[in-house]
Specification:
By secondary structure, the protein is mainly alpha-helical. It folds into two domains: 5-103, no CATH class; 110-145, no CATH class. Helices cover 60% and strands 5% of the residues. The protein has a two-stranded antiparallel sheet.
Length: 146
């Protein structure tokens, strides 16, 4: 399975924004923007170096007892932590296209996204179809797309 590198970058951007406030966020954003230009080992080494530097920072917790009187904690830098964990959990699937070059796997799903938007436009012209007829239309459109 290949995770779309473009969508991984977008996921991290969702957590960090385009202009992160913290140094850790800025460095992680800079790192994720290199994803499409490097190989797996280079990226993994850089990610591990980032974690060695900022690991303690993203594990910091804040205790909040103002709202309910009970002590509750949360990660102080939760968005940076979430961005890192997203990359870390998807890392085994971000470079599949390099492991199997004979399969010509793309590193992004841009071609698929374009196909689906064209399919949606064609289906929009036939709104109100019953489920079974809608299935037949989609099947026919996909057969003709080959």
């Amino acid at each position: 399975m290949q995770i779309c590198q473009f969508h991984q970058i977008k996921q991290v951007t969702k957590y960090l924004t385009r202009r992160p406030d913290t140094e850790a966020g800025k460095e992680l954003r800079t790192l994720i923007l290199t994803l499409t230009d490097v190989d797996e080992k280079t990226f993994t080494d850089a990610l591990n170096a980032w974690h060695a530097k900022w690991g303690g920072y993203i594990e910091e917790k804040t205790v909040n007892s103002f709202v309910t009187g009970k002590q509750k904690w949360y990660y102080t830098h939760g968005r940076v932590r979430s961005a890192y964990r997203s990359i870390k959990s998807n890392l085994p699937y971000l470079f599949t296209y390099l492991k199997y070059p004979e399969r010509n796997i793309p590193n992004t799903t841009n071609d698929l996204d374009g196909s689906f938007s064209a399919l949606k436009k064609k289906l929009a012209a036939h709104h109100g179809l019953r489920r079974d007829r809608r299935y037949k239309v989609i099947s026919q459109l996909l057969k003709n797309a080959r």
